[in-house]
UniProtKB/TrEMBL annotation, chains A, B:
Consists of three domains: the N-terminal catalytic domain, the editing domain and the C-terminal anticodon-binding domain. The lineage of its organism: Bacteria, Bacillati, Actinomycetota, Actinomycetes, Micrococcales. It comes from Agrococcus jejuensis. This is Proline--tRNA ligase. Keywords: Aminoacyl-tRNA synthetase, ATP-binding, Cytoplasm, Ligase, Nucleotide-binding, Protein biosynthesis. GO terms for molecular function: aminoacyl-tRNA deacylase activity; ATP binding; proline-tRNA ligase activity. HAMAP family: Pro_tRNA_synth_type1. Residues 34-487 form the Aminoacyl-transfer RNA synthetases class-II family profile domain.
Length: 586, 586
């Protein structure tokens, strides 16, 4: 039993100015956390209790899934991350430091490398596999803009697990075991989730899924169809239409289209000067967007992407499509340096040459949206100032150097698996499972002897759940205007007993009741504060959010109290000698 | 139950080259930890289990002492440490880093500042005090030379507690509560300890004690008398002798003493050229040692310390005596720049002038060992090359600018409390309790309202126990030539069941026995490995160090096994159907 009169806690009546998400606001107001720096938080006793309960659930499910717990430091030397290339790939996203001898270190954002090396040290034979090991550990990322409290912090706690197998089938089984464990964990945490296909590229792997908690404040957009397809927007792939025959297509014609550097002005011009039965729309145009890539080695490259004029380049999809290069829009200087790129009038140039301007564009890759299949006909730039070409046919008049998935996704787009149109929702990433394959084992030389005594490179998976982030996600999904409404399994206490008034007899009855409740194994927060009004006590109870509240007030001397259900708001008079039984019934 | 066949573990037959302490060697060999970098360690499942048991004991005793658990990040901003001056004071001893915006941060070695700020945020009235809050948290120090495994690592786990009181009496009570809790913790951990007075200066406090575990490999020397006095060498104070009358003392005389720049040569010369009834010894001479201090602001200062010639300047005592300045020996350049300091012939110069050389030594402080009381007579340098002065009387011929405790301590020196001669032993610091007083609260403005509504500055204590270090300390004290011998309360398992041979019936019996043992609440490590020889299994059991081992071998079919006590080495045949009862008896 913890007495509120002694608990290291202060609740706040008003919303703290620093809070920019519901969970951040409520966890501060109810005294669960405090700011310790930008994106850094201190955990007060109430917060730590919830955190421990979440960790315990994760631990139980990891054990049930056959995973074994280990623990690494947060501070690690550069060398293993150098060997896999991630020391460079991480860019500004991680904290780096040097020790007194000038040796480079990092605060690890994830531990693939050192888990691989640890297994290399401990395991030598297939007999010791399959193996899944995990840790619950504090991680660091140097976020550009820490925000939303625990949802995007610079220090955060994760469970990260890594599986080791010899065969692809083994990896698939280990992956499935973790995926199943994640489903059980989120069910126990009371967190809605959608499993979406994710891009595996950044981790160098082959299969990847994210667990997203659907919420309007989620930083991730995801799509799903009614019949089960789900992917985050970055991993969404276009359902490629069939090619169209173009034998009968008329020849392309270039027209003067002065002052039409945008899709809108071009469409208006076409409808006025080249009208046709069906009016021209943006979807008839082929927009050519110049992007600037910065590769890992620092070298830069311009690429031009051709996509239907009614779509934009989606920044996140472009990031994924071109990773590990960084993507930006081309600058005025880029255009100036490449006079072949006539801004506002760029057209394809990998074609037979008909539509190419005089200036050379040699060396600039031209990539196409997958919808631009052979036989599709486009209104697009003629690579000359003030001119566009009408009726340009893909596959006849131009071809790309490849396709790329950077176009924005829209509600109603067909799911790639043929399961129909998709909707777009927002979600918060609460878990992630990856099939890494052999990338890390190859880079770090993790091999074991197989049954026939030959060395085999191990195949790996990587599985992460944010502990502190999920705690905040739960608050996002479990609160009302009065405060937090904890799911029972992770509430800081099972029961909150509030004694009101100034009658010592009442407090003595409450004290006895607390003892009786705790005798059943339930944990109690006891508001024993003298000289605090019932209103303040009730407000604190609602803010703190323990699932069940027992009020012991004046009626106590007649053996009566009140039992509140925080979630439903139900309040019922109850005989105090029945409280324990009622609480045990659930 | 954990099956050894599946446990993520490998034991090593040979001592790893990297290991330079018994605990380091055994924890590596038995598969408890692995190296993750210089002074950085990964915890394997066995190690993590022991660690958690220690943490749980610490947590229980903290709760019993009324302390509440919180948790801070390891990464913290510079600002609070700047306000107390410790950002500078820490020097090279901590890890520092900048975030992407260039803001300074540190990996905190201790958390006084942020606990003070947290309490300032949460507490406003004396009614919320006394308060003791603690965390079990990973800390960092950029050690010059990480060594001895967990004993001097760069990342380590500590329980650090901080108490907050209004009155000095309150602080004394909070301090005592933590001190008592520490005694209980060490008793439960099976760790011998001596509580020694320590210097409180570095933390800015008023009272400080260290818990030292006596061991030959300890990095701390401490002294104790038979009747209870104990202090670390840095905190030892000299029992100052009474002053002596000098009215009848003959005048001092300067003699030529060519080629006597050392105490040995001087004593030999004196005995040859100025013989007396009792031969001259080093104890008759006053040695004057030039030290160079570097202050926090980077400025340098020379000081000269006069001490009996049979004592050395103790580096650690000098460090403490002059902190926060750094102390080094004076260099040739220092002597060259100060011709008044005649190397090998330095004498006191704060006296009436009689023994001063011609060269000025203005501005150099002259400090005396406390034994150089008024009336003591000395043979010392005459501040002239090749000359010494005989019969120089303290208080008559010279006085110091103060006293300083830098002289080495010797076995047999009298304890300062009059409790008799001391012995010197070595110990390892396993806990530390400090009365910080109001230094941090003043620097950071922590005040609360007292009963009369006035703001009062809070007085604080700080209390630390190393979790990972103590784990290693326990191994240092609990092992034999075969491996670790865990005390029962922190062993990774309660019972280690070893099934031997290849008879499936035997393994089935062992399996059932394990289930029966676990039904009583004991945790079992089950060596179920097929195709591993009994010798290897027994060796692993002894190396791993679970307190009780049950061997189930051929006799099992007749209902017989063996019960081993790892600590005593006792091995007895036992009826398998009596094993559970025997284990429960203890």
């Amino acid at each position: 039993m913890i007495r509120l009169s002694q608990l290291f806690l202060t609740t706040l009546r008003d919303d703290p100015a620093e809070a920019d998400a519901v969970s951040h606001r409520l966890l501060l107001r109810a005294g669960y956390i405090r700011r310790a720096g930008s994106g850094l938080f201190a955990w007060l006793p109430l917060g730590l209790r919830v955190r421990r309960r979440i960790e315990e659930i994760v631990r139980q499910e990891m054990t049930a899934a056959g995973a074994q717990e280990v623990l690494f430091p947060g501070l690690l030397p550069r060398e293993p991350y150098e060997r896999t290339g991630r020391w460079t790939e991480y860019g500004d996203g991680i904290f780096r430091l040097q020790d007194r001898k000038g040796a480079d270190h990092l605060l690890a954002p994830t531990h693939e490398e050192v888990f691989t090396l640890l297994v290399q040290d401990v395991v030598s034979s297939y007999k010791q596999l399959p193996l899944t090991i995990y840790q619950i550990q504090d991680k660091y990322r140097d976020e550009t803009r820490p925000r939303a409290g625990l949802l995007r912090a610079r220090e955060f706690t994760m469970k990260d697990a890594y599986s080791f197998d010899i065969t692809d089938e083994g990896l698939a089984a280990s992956y499935q075991a973790q995926r199943d464990a994640y489903e059980r964990i989120f069910q126990r945490l009371g967190l809605d989730y959608v499993i979406v296909a994710a891009d595996a590229g950044a981790m160098g792997g082959s299969r990847s899924e994210e667990f997203l908690h659907p919420t309007a404040i989620g930083e991730d957009a995801f799509v799903r169809s009614a019949s089960g397809y789900a992917a985050n927007v970055e991993a969404f792939t276009t359902l490629v239409p069939d090619a169209i025959g173009f034998d009968d297509a008329p020849a392309a014609v270039v027209h003067d289209t002065p002052a039409t550097p945008t899709i809108d002005t071009l469409v208006a011009h076409a409808n006025e000067h080249q009208p046709r039965a069906t009016p021209w729309t943006a979807a008839d145009t082929l927009k050519n967007v110049v992007l600037r890539l910065t590769h890992l080695d620092g070298s830069r490259e311009l690429v031009v992407v051709g996509l239907p004029g009614d779509r934009e380049v989606d920044e996140k999809r472009a990031e994924v499509a071109f990773q590990p290069a960084e993507v930006e829009s081309a600058t005025e200087a880029d255009f100036a340096a490449n006079p072949g790129l006539v801004k506002g009038y760029i057209g394809p140039w990998s074609a037979a040459g008909a539509v190419l301007g005089e200036q050379s564009t040699t060396g600039i890759r031209y990539l196409l949206d997958p919808r631009v299949v052979d036989g599709t006909t486009w209104l697009t730039g003629a690579n000359e100032d003030g001119r566009h070409v009408f009726g340009l046919v893909a596959g006849r008049d131009f071809v790309g150097d490849g396709t790329v998935e950077v176009a924005s996704v829209r509600e109603g787009d067909p799911a790639p698996d043929g399961s129909g149109p998709v909707t777009i929702e927002r979600g918060m990433e609460i878990g992630h499972v990856f099939q890494l394959g052999r990338k890390y084992a190859e880079a770090l030389g993790l091999q074991v002897l197989d049954e026939s005594g030959r060395l085999q490179t191990v195949t790996m998976g990587s599985y992460g759940i944010g502990v502190t982030r999920n705690l905040a996600a739960i608050v996002e999904g479990h609160h009302d205007d009065k405060g937090i409404v904890w799911p029972r399994e992770i509430a800081p206490f099972d029961v909150h007993v509030v004694a009101t008034g100034r009658d010592e007899a009442v407090f003595a009855i409450a004290e006895q009741l607390v003892a009786d409740i705790e005798a059943t194994g339930l944990e109690v927060l006891f508001d024993d504060r003298a000289k605090v009004s019932p209103g303040v006590k009730f407000g604190d109870a609602e803010l703190i959010g323990v699932p069940r509240v027992v009020v012991v007030g004046r009626g106590a001397v007649e053996g009566l109290g009140e039992l509140w259900d925080r979630a439903t708001g139900e309040r019922a008079e109850v005989r105090l000698d029945e409280v324990v039984a009622r609480l045990q019934q659930g």
